[in-house]
User: Fold Galactokinase from Thermococcus pacificus.
Amino acid sequence: MRVLSPGRVNLIGEHTDYTFGYVMPMAVNLYTVIEGEKAGDVKLYSEHFNEEKAFSLNELVREGSWMDYVKGVYWALFEEGYKPGGIHGRVGGNLPLGAGLSSSASFELAVVAFLNKAYNLNLSRLEMVLLAKKAENEFVGVPCGILDQFSIAFGKKGHVIFLDTDTLEYEYIPFPEDVSVLVFYTGVKRELASSAYAERKEVAEEALRLLGKRTSKEVSEEEVSRLPALYARYLGYIVRENRRVLEVRDALKEGDITTVGEILTRAHWDIAKNYGVSSDELDFFVRKANELGAYGARLTGAGFGGSAIALVDRERAEELGRAILGEYQRAFPWRAEYFVVEPSDGVE
Ligand code: GAF
Assistant:
């Protein structure tokens, strides 16, 4: 049995999910692959780490390794009353780890989808999303929102997903066929700054509490201006970002990729200046991509390193990727990489 679980790129709507705002991601054609069969316990070989690890199902103890993603999914399933058996197999694929393309959520969704198939658990896509998120939040211990898991489960070839993370209502919007998404991994692993993510989340949640609101969708700029400085700065960014997601949705529906690109670049400089999650490396990419004729560019995912994206004409994507990579490697010592990706189907 084989499961293919994509990575994700967020087109726009960054750091909006934990205040129940709007996001617009896509699943992309870089994958985590699990191949294996049913067994009494779990034994997996990781191609990335070149090692085999095992555990028995009555011993779900965190160990600080890649296996925690597998254990976390079992833990979440058991908590919810499911009783899957084990797996023997291997995990690999071409999705880079720690690059800000959601390799951890992709791995968790791969595990839950594998168990769903192997043990006929009858889980819906949304149930798989919520189980993978529970594993990440409560077992692995990362306080993320729903963006990554949702994109990976609900991706659709040729489309972006417009998602209201409050109601979980979503809509697929066609992505232009002649435009490519150039993903640029800065070579700076993004886990390094998980405490900065938690800090942003706490401040944003507290800002909402101070205003007595449940979701950032309901907050006006006037209300933001009454908050103490840091709260106003963070929540103000989120409120503008929610609006930009709606603007990008409208522009995409009209096929106006020039406007989409402009909004993306504007979003980048706003998050860099007011949310403080960009870096010199990400800013360098955004500047270069725009100089070389991209429609627009921005960091994608949590920031603090990781990856950025640019929207580019399909026939120029490779050329731009190579050119930017060359200049980047003269400016920074980290080993960067680029990928030309397209919106793809969710975990299967
Ligand atoms: C990370 C988190 F996992 C997401 O939930 C989201 O908050 C994102 O950062 C920022 O938009 O990928």
Summary: The domain at 179-341 is CATH 3.30.70.890 (Alpha-Beta Plaits). The first helix runs from residue 67 to 79. The first strand starts at residue 2 and ends at 12. The radius of gyration is 20 Å.
